[in-house]
Amino acid sequence: MASLAFPAWGAEEGKSERAPERAQSRLSPFCVSGHCGLVDADGNWQTAPRFSRLVRSRDYWVAHRASGLVGLLDANGRLLIAPSFVRIGTFSDGLAPAQGTKSENTGFIRPDGTWAIEPRYSSARPFSEGVALVASRNAETGSYAAEFIDPAGRRAIKRTFSANASQPGFRHGLMVVDVENPEDVFRSALINHAGEFIVPPRDDQTIEVGRDGAILVRTGDRFRLIDRNGKKLFEVSGEEASLNLAGDGLAFFSPDEKRAGMVNARTGAVVIPPTPLWVSGDAFSEGLAHVRMRQQLGSDELGEGYIDRTGKVKIPPVFATAGRFRGGIAIVTNQEGDAGTIDRSGAWVSKPLKGRRLVEAFDSENTDEDSTDIHISASYETFYEEPRPFAAETAESVHPENMPLVEQLLEDRRTAIAAVGRHPCGIEIAVNREGQRIWPENLVGHCARKQLSDVLHYDEEKLSPKALSAYKAFKKEESREKAEWPHEVSERDRYSGNVEEMMTRRLYPEKAERDADLRRLIENAGWENGKTTIPLGGPLSLAANGQWKVLSSEKVTAWREQGRRLVATPLPLPKAYRDLQEAYKEGKVTQAEFLAGERNLKKLFPDAFKTPAQAESQQNDTADGVPPIPTAFVMDHAERWQAIVSIVDSGHFRLPDSPPTPESILDTLRQYGFWRNTDGLSMVTKGYSTYSWISEPRIDREAHSANWAFRYSNLSTGTTDQPGYSSGVVATVAVMGRTHTALLTTEWHGPFSEALAQTYFDEIVAVGRNMRFAEGQGYADYQAGDKVANASLERLITGEPPENYKAFSRSVKNMLERDEAERRENLINAVFRILGVAAAGAASIMGARRIRKSGESK
């Protein structure tokens, strides 16, 4: 592939220091369109971009998924822990604080994901100098207390502290902690490893321990430098005074806002007396500190430059802002606000460029401030453009160097090892150091997807065969990715719960506890998962292969009975409602506030407000509604899908020689859907339904089965405040026997239903292939005289018509019958009228003839 031309960082100046030799291949996090992976020094993926974020944790990488789950990679990007934790902190002493999915507590894990210290703390900091600060919550008082533990989980310091801490851990044998007094006021203090106070706790002070061991204490307007024993070394005070640690054993101080100086933070000796040329100073990096200075004495024109440890100006204050040096390179901006980079001599490595933004790419949450192992990310200003048609099949012919740059990753702060560009079809692409595309692999499919989603009046019919094939491959890949998201979210919330569950626990703890009991019932119902034959009820069984979990019909029946007993006892009204009632009685809330709160709670927990008669009626309906046919459950081990097995003894179901067309079935589904969404002929509730195929009905005559999957969406409006909307996918496998039909049905709900169906439907079809009828009960065992099913394949797919539809059909039939009867009656009457007229005419004619004959005879 063609190479993408990177800007020549520093090449045109010729004055900059020589760029360092390329280091041994090291991995860097790199993201494109929200997909993050690790690239090597050549900009090629070492770890595929399957994550939303990658954060260094000493010798490891914490890999974040968009779902909120995190895993762990080693230094070379190999997976050590699959994304299965809610949080993994920084590794130190071989351990890292972590929170799993089975508890809201935090413990410490090893790099293989096993618990070294079980999760029993409310929060935990990483280990530093052999100890870690952990906090525990008192269940009775709700307060938190913190203590230090060693890597074995034993208490390391006798004294307890508050859960807050200004400093992440011990540094040079000292740590800043907070101590809570009885009035819940947090007081900052400095302790040593023995827990002794070097600086006693006060509620009006802040303390900082620098990476060089310097100690700064601020109490009100008083700033002090102290030694390790708490002895004062230097002090400056006043409303306009300031003092900040600068590293390298130095600190900047100012007695007022007009001048600044520099002091030795270890001895307290003044290195540079306050000078009106200096306004403020920042930290030293690689022997230089950037200082805000006046251009000349008495001038109000300010700029930032660099000084050495003696205070000598090494780079004049010609910049609007200046950053720290890392690897001999610093980011600066000119007076117009454009960013560039300079070397330690002040020469441009990369001149300021309009529309380009330079930021340090920290890849660790606890990066050493003096580390040179930090990249620069260059992002380029882009403008929104209206989507326009693009021939997706030609996507690969576009030269990468002709695409506008979006972002670059600079490995040694000088050289771009990977970049993101904007493709004319509207997507982002990523290229390596040589300009070869590393993402996306299926460029044509991605472009086709962009066209179909963004370009108005563009549909699949406009795609060429090549683009359509690539698009279908993209959809399959996208579906797999989307399908993983809800599963991971479910795993993340397994203990903590989703928003609805958390709200229930807070507002209605009794219901939350019963819901938890119901979940435990199904989890412990006796699932089988070995390679064995499992009875599913009646003449049906499943030849399990160890890939699925199965709950047999017998155990389903037992589980249902236990569930009925559990919900038989009515729950009390929600505590939140009882509290609201009490507040209303005491006059703490108005009637309007009470009624509003009552309405909200009834919407949240409608079952709690049912009358005993309604509850009993629902209980009976539920009991009567359980079909008297064996039912079993099947799901995959990771619980990404689950299916219900139902056995219908409606007789021998013959597979049709000429199955109904897919469109005619959809027409029926649409008709049924419309009537399901209305309340009958009154049309008080209006409904609209759409249906389409995920997989059209397929008949496997050799296996005597059929399978199909369709998506639906229902929108209904009526007297409620908000319209009702539901969507999902129904997937079914039907296996026919001699006198029974087995239905394996899965229904997915919500925005990810289509992705789930496209990803897992084939797995469900595979389960259907392993379903077996008992000997003599198979499809081929049919004998004359056996019961025969009257239902058609179409009715098996669409289900029974809704009652509204039946009522409407009966009304139409009756109307037609009445019309037909009336038409017949009118026809008969007309005939009789015609016959009457004819008879009268005949009579008159006959009378005239008689008169004429009588006259003639005379």
Briefly say what this structure is.
By secondary structure, the protein is of the alpha+beta class. Helices cover 25% and strands 33% of the residues.
Give a description of the structure.
The chain has 858 residues and is α+β, with helices and mostly antiparallel strands. It folds into four domains: 36-375, no CATH class; 498-528 and 554-626, no CATH class; 640-801, no CATH class; 807-858. The protein has twelve helices and 49 strands. The strands form twelve sheets. The chain has a seven-stranded antiparallel beta sheet with strand order 42-43-44-48-47-46-45, with helices on both faces. Strand 1 (28-32) and strand 2 form a beta hairpin. Helix 1 packs across helix 2. The longest helix is centred in the last third of the chain and has 55 residues, at 803-857. It is globular.
Task: Supply the key terms.
disordered C terminus; 12 helices; alpha+beta; 6-stranded antiparallel beta sheet; 7-stranded antiparallel beta sheet; 858 residues
Q: What strand order characterises the main sheet?
A: 42-43-44-48-47-46-45
Determine the number of helices (DSSP H or I, runs of at least 4 residues).
Answer: 12
What value does the Rg take, in angstroms?
Answer: 39 Å
Fraction in beta strands: 25-35%
Percentage of residues assigned to helices? 25-40%
Number of strands: 49
Shape: globular
Main beta sheet: strand number and arrangement?
Answer: 7 strands, antiparallel
Q: Which secondary-structure class do the elements indicate?
A: alpha+beta
